[in-house]
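Continued from yesterday's entry.
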Amino acid sequence: MSEAAPSAPRLRTRFTELLGIEYPVVQGGMMWVGRAELAAAVSEAGGLGIVTALTQPSPAELAREIERTRKLTDKPFGVNLTILPTITPPPYDEYRRAIVDSGVTIVETAGSSPEPHMEFFAEHNVRVIHKCTSVRHAVKAERLGVAAVSIDGFECAGHPGEDDVPGLVLIPAAADALTIPFIASGGFCDGRGLAAALALGADGVNMGTRFLCSAEAPVAESVKQRIIDASELDTRLIFRQLRNTARVARNAVSDEVVRILADGGTFPDVQPLVTGARGRLVFEDGDLDAGIWSVGLSQGLVRDIAPAGDLVRRIVSEAREVTLRMTEHLA
């Protein structure tokens, strides 16, 4: 655990009060990236770090990763459990058990509906934050009893859904429809974004790409440098024809996937190109064309590689400055 660094006063929202954190800044639960060092650095700085459950090869390994995180910070952190249809589903019940047995009380769910998991988490006093890409899914998640929602706009990395609604519309629409706290995801990487999200009615922000380009992110430096060098134009939307759209980095592989599907190909035709194992090689070996890898439009706003804790403090400070500048226009 690091020594306490000077920090700004708490930035209180319904989300920070719900989870007992200082700042409404959440590190997204990214596959292969959400490990102890990154999650702990974000939480230690006052945000909410997220350990990604399925990055760990087994529930036992997840329990060890949670313990490693706890040794690095005594502040709240969460665990991401992404629920997606697969040929060989992970043992979700065992991962759930590892989470609660490790004493974690904050879980971010994503992918399919969290309904099959809600009763178990409720019994163990786990607060669920469910990531949604539409207002209708967010409203359903609220009915299921989640504690908060993460509303994911079209700008995001990974799966933005099929409605193509950007955050500028999606966030206030969610604010009008929900009664529980919610945070905004997709396109956020700095204090301007945090201030904008709060102005639009959100209770905080979730950032993936920005923390992917942090010092603690366990990915090759070439990946981080590509994010800095890239613009907001350097992503690809793949799987559009399959109604399973994903936003990934533009590279030789994603270009090929788009071409094959545009020419009438089907998933079996691209499956060898899009395996998770190939994407993992990008992060581990730094070969940017080894496979597909997720990154959001916000990469066009990322200018540096910085410690995750510094990013949290910088983002909050910038948001305060933006808010103060805006109030000057009302004088």
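--- second protein ---
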Amino acid sequence: MGLRDENGGFVFDSAMLQKQANLPSEFLWPQEDLVEAQEELNEPLIDLGGFKRGDEVETARAAELLSKACSEHGFFQVTNHGIDATIIQAAHNEIDTFFNLPLDKKLSLRKKPGSLNANGYSGAHAHRFQSKLPWKETYTLLHHENDPSNPNIIVDYCKSVMGEDFEHTGWICQRYCNALKELGLLITELLAISLGVDRFHYRNFFEDCVSMMRCNYYPPCQNPGLTFGTGPHCDPNSLTILHQDQVGGLEVFSNNKWKAIRPEPGALVVNIGDTFMALCNGRYKSCLHRAMVNRNLERKTIAFFLSPREDRVVRPPQELFSREEPRKYPDFTWPEFWEFSQKHYRSDVTTIDNFIKWKLSSKPSGTFTSVA
């Protein structure tokens, strides 16, 4: 049995749960979902060094690798990305600081059930779901680097909500997000080149983006074959840039098989989300992926999510649709899709299609045409 709070909600006390021989029923997943990966994805390892130097041959090579990967499954890894290893290590140290806090402190920072505010702690996403819970804890921080009214939004949040003692945590996470945002913008340039559109089209679109940092902690699990660290899902945002430790556990569903992504020292994993799939008119894929748990080892990752500013209209550039290749998605905004994805039971391969059906059914007929 797991702990319950004063409202009867499930409390993820990993220290207590790891001592139990049997997994609480809230964490059990159907056996057909738990098929193990038998091979690796072999996603490309893209060296960004030549692209950053302006080397045309290396840029063309990187764009070719990216295009092939994103057309098939939407995952690749990048090296020579320019993120200082000391910043990454400092951010991981702050993960340790936070997830080692007493349980009552973490619970005081929980996300509220039904809230669309991304900030806060979650134990097994119990604020959203009651079954098929993920075996993990998360802490999410919203990042608006270009908000002139609050350039240090993470620092202010950590001080005001977590306490003055967490100002240092705030500065570390702010620096990490600022650096990852710049990398994200650089990757959007390479994506544009690979798609044959203006190099700065997506960079300009995301310059004043909404982004957030999610710290993930996956404790050891005595029954790893019965549950997931994160269940199968697609990311609703535009781009995800993930730093994972060397434990491994990330898997992608490609060609009707689950395939593992091997951690590469110094590399960052990048994947396409649903919103960018709409921004490129479906040419690049947002792919189902999941995180496994380990019987003996804890696993920690930091995910950085890039999304459009709230009032930006998600629409592919003109070059990517025509009468021969009509538009696949109507115009929408990120807040519309974010709200839908949070109220939908799971973010999976059907989420964006279900969102489009919902959006079209709630608008007057004729507001979306599938041709140029």
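DSSP finds eleven helices and 17 strands in the chain. Residues 72 and 285 are 7 Å apart (CA to CA). Will compare against the first tomorrow.
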